[in-house]
Amino acid sequence: MKKLLLFSIVTLVGLTFIGRMIYLQVVISEELKLEAENNSVKTVYDYPERGFIYDRNGELMVANQVAYDVMVIPKETGDFDLNKLAGLLKMDESRLEKKLKTARIWSTKQASVIIPQLTQEEYAPLQEQLRKFPGFYIQRRSLRKYQVDHSASVLGYIREVNQGKINEDDYYVQGDLAGKSGIELQYEKELRGEKGYKKYTRDHYGRAIESYKNGSSDLAPIAGTDLTVTLDKELQEYAEKLMINKRGGIVAIEPKTGEILSLITAPNYDPSLLMGRDRSKNINAILRDTVRLPDVNRVLQGQYAPGSPFKVINALIGLQEGVTTPQERFRCNHGYDYGGRKKMACHSHASPLAMSKGIAESCNAYFAQVYRRIIEKGETSSQGMDTWHDHVTSFGLGNYLGYDLPVGQPGRIPDGEYYTSRYKYKWYAPTTISNAIGQGEVAVTPIQLANMTAAIANRGYFYTPHIIKKMNGEPIDNPKYTTKNFTTIDAKHFEPVIEGMNEVYNSGTAKYVKIPEIEICGKTGTVENFAKVNGVRKQQTDHSVFIAFAPKDDPKIAIAVFIENGYWGSRYAAKIASLLIEKHIKGEITRTDLEDYLMSHSLEYEYAKKLGKEPYNINVAVDQGLITDEKERKLHQLVDSLNLKILK
Amino acid sequence: MGIGDRPKYDIAAILIYTALVFIGLFSIYSAAPVLEYTSITDINQVYGKQFLFIGVCALLIIIILAIEVKFYEQFAGLIYVVSMLSLAGLYIFGKEVNGAVSWYPIGSFTFQPSEFAKFATALAVAKFLSQLNVSLKNVRDFMIVAGIIALPALLIVPQPDPGSALIYTAFFFALHREGLSLWYLSLGIIALALFLAALVINIWWIILIIVVVVAIIYLLSRKRKHNKRLPKPRIYLYVIATFICIAYTLSTSYIFNNILEDRHRNRIDIVLGRVQDDAGIGYNINQSMIAIGNGGWAGKPLEEATQTRGGYVPEQHTDFVFSAIGEVSGLLGTSITILLFMFLIYRIIIMAERQRNQFARIYGYGVAGIFFLHFFVNVGMVIGLLPTVGIPLPFMSYGGSGLMGFTILLFIFIKLDAHRMSYDH
Ligand SMILES: [Zn+2]
């Protein structure tokens, strides 16, 4: 026994150690290898240049510029004069101290950003001075350079990824930039390309020793894809100018292709505001502006009652369902009595009217009767409602449409089930009669309205609206955007309705915004709406809506314009639509009187009503809001949005 | 004279020694804190110095083997006294390196007397115990042996170098071979178990466990009254034993929490898993395990052994040299190294057992015990099984004093063994 003690213990210990080695070098070796790599392999990323964005005519909209980050490696700073550095960086001493503390907590050996994204002008004076502060240095990076001062919301912006993004997509690392909204977000993968990297082994001081595995695991970057989008830069710029001091949106679509020619939401802002030192401040101002909501893309996310433009859909459904003919005349007695003492009012016009004039005069009585017949054609109101719903949704209303931008709303087109669950008792067509004139339960987004117009222009089909045209100069080849989506209405039924829409310009509600030599078909809308003011639901001045396409026989543009509280269809929306159609088709403006009107009239006084404590009237017929002082012209309203907040 | 005339040097031991020394040299080369490797004989680098030390050791070996075999036994006492004086002298002439006064400066080199105290103590213990009238059963003799062993340890602890002092417990194996009861080891193990338990379990639980265990033993021993080998089950003995255990537990708990310094406490805490601290004191062990794991099955070529190249394991060419073997040679290298150590110790035990003379056998067991304890504590630490204790891995860790000390330790025994046929009292 005494001869064996040491012998046995050596054996036991030796075998235990070998077991431990198997555990470390085989069983958990892979995990330890990862840790070893984290320890010692320094990855230096090689960022490719982000793709440029061109408009449909090859005009550059978004390019890149070099920006400069002020970096710190806490371990290397030593003692320095905090006050002096704060002065140099134009930063609060306490804020700088906080930043440095955060950097130290994150890593003492690795670099952290102290001030991100300085522009060339901001960087130049720093360059020399900063050398006196060891541990601080400036890192170049590529940022966006906007060639336009409009279209911010559709172009979108890029920002440093947050932890959430890093967690969900392991492509990104701390400090990477990624699209945060608009086209930048939608086509992030294409625009960014693929970053490459070079790996170096480093020693425990962080010094690079040599290329890792002789560079065999290095990855060359893949350049970002240049995008050509369907937008027309000039049209976009002009449209945004016309939206001065107004809220709302514009969508213009090329009916033959579904390409989005223009997409405007107002108020908008200069995309360059999201660059440079004040970018965080500006982003916050935009995000926190709960009054103007510049962050909301009104044409994609705003759900409004469509108003009268929706009447043309009811006319088409009436024809398709055979409940009326283009020739049938409907009586209007300053409105339509639809049961009991209920009446849908109408304005004063000749009566009775057939379809074409009915559309031109926008007669409520006409469409109430057609709509009632459609619903009552069903065995039950619910079935009639379902038939109606199917026709309406075939125009791309009531769903997300599938366009290539990252935000949207489905809107709402009610069906039989909607009312059955809403009303406990039996319901009839008159209950839902507001749908006849695009009020009531119907809600659409402006882009849906524009797409509906394109479908009418095409006499029964549309292409899914899209913003992408070419990638690296190659036309896109996505069946989603090249396949016709047919409506449930036969092509032959469109002509009488289109005649009516043409009549709107010739003799109807839009006759004052006619354009010489262009046959336009359109429909005005004046939309009742309500808002909560000081907690009370109150009717507001009507929205001004207009849809149009032109030329009548060979449509090149379909457009929807929506102006919040713009009084009535022809006052703002129809003027804007006419000008944009002329600009797109002729390339020049002959109706400068319309242009002058739009540029010299503000609706700010109308929007301010809701914020004030004074009681106010709506739909005041007197022409108000004339801009007398040039300074009041605010294309980019960001600046005073902060003031507005204080007002509130 | 006769057969015993020609010395028979144990080739196996010498081969294992040579293998370990050169694996060590290669590992020191890999782990050298340099940006550019130079020739292995570059005297400005640690590997060049180690190469030089190996050369010195070759000379030492020749001298050791050339000296008359009787010398070691005859001069054991003197060697011991000189060695103890050199340890004591450190407190006057020593040079402080890394907070410990363990070295004498000699030109550009340093000399660490504690590395030489091991063979001196082994010689002294062997010499004393091999005297005819000395017996471990005699309390006075036992106390003297204990004193011989404890003296160097007590001189080394305050340097401070608790790791090197710890090594002297290795003489237990030699004493056990000469008849010291295993009970002493059991006592040691019980003491260690209670110490560790006091750190991780609530003190009241431990007291409860002690009482229950003692009660069970008492009841078992009552049933075996016929067994005369066990002490008579006197109840008061058990009560006293219980109280001693409890008092010991309470005092260790007190010592740990109030007397030990933070750094010692931390090391124990980390191994016990009481704290996770990969950046602080646990950094060394964690980095060491990463380097070892990175080696995988077969190791990595030097340029891919990133942990070793990047100097991530502190003290890698000295105490943590085993981790360099782990990364550069993988499981293959580490297993071979472990097996070489096992075979070396087996070989020394076998050699000790074949000695006719008690002096050589005791010395042999002393050597085996010292190698084992170094191997156990060092590798155990490097692979994360034991607390960080700063002692070198024999033959492999960088350091002239260590390498020479271990070489002398081993080759004196090889010399004694070579003359086993002719060498007698
Ligand atoms: Zn009417």
From TrEMBL, chain A:
Membrane topology: Single-pass membrane protein
Cited SUPFAM superfamilies: beta-lactamase/transpeptidase-like, Penicillin binding protein dimerisation domain
Naturally occurring in which organism (per UniProt): Nonlabens xylanidelens
Entry's Gene Ontology molecular function annotations: penicillin binding; peptidoglycan L,D-transpeptidase activity; serine-type D-Ala-D-Ala carboxypeptidase activity
Record keywords: Carboxypeptidase, Cell inner membrane, Cell membrane, Cell shape, Cell wall biogenesis/degradation, Hydrolase, Membrane, Peptidoglycan synthesis, Protease, Transmembrane, Transmembrane helix
Compartment list: Cell membrane; Membrane
Pfam families assigned to the protein according to its UniProt record, in alphabetical order: PBP_dimer, Transpeptidase
Transmembrane residue ranges: none
GO cellular component: plasma membrane
Positions of the Penicillin-binding protein dimerisation domain: 47-211
Annotated signal peptide: none
Protein's recorded name: Penicillin-binding protein 2
GO biological process, one term: peptidoglycan biosynthetic process
Domain Penicillin-binding protein transpeptidase: residue ranges: 248-579
UniProtKB/TrEMBL annotation, chain B:
Source superkingdom: Bacteria
Topology within the bilayer: Multi-pass membrane protein
Keywords of this entry: Cell shape, Membrane, Transmembrane, Transmembrane helix
InterPro entries reported for this sequence: FtsW/RodA
Record's protein name: Rod shape determining protein RodA
GO cellular component, one term: cell division site
Membrane-spanning intervals of the chain: 12-31, 51-68, 75-94, 142-158, 179-197, 203-220, 235-256, 328-350, 362-383, 395-414
Cross-referenced PANTHER family: CELL CYCLE PROTEIN, PEPTIDOGLYCAN GLYCOSYLTRANSFERASE MRDB
Keyword Membrane attributed: yes
Pfam families reported in the protein's UniProt record: FTSW_RODA_SPOVE
Entry keyword annotation includes Transmembrane: yes
An MF annotation (GO) of this entry: lipid-linked peptidoglycan transporter activity
Biological process per Gene Ontology, one example term: cell division
Compartments, as annotated in UniProt: Membrane
Coiled coil: none
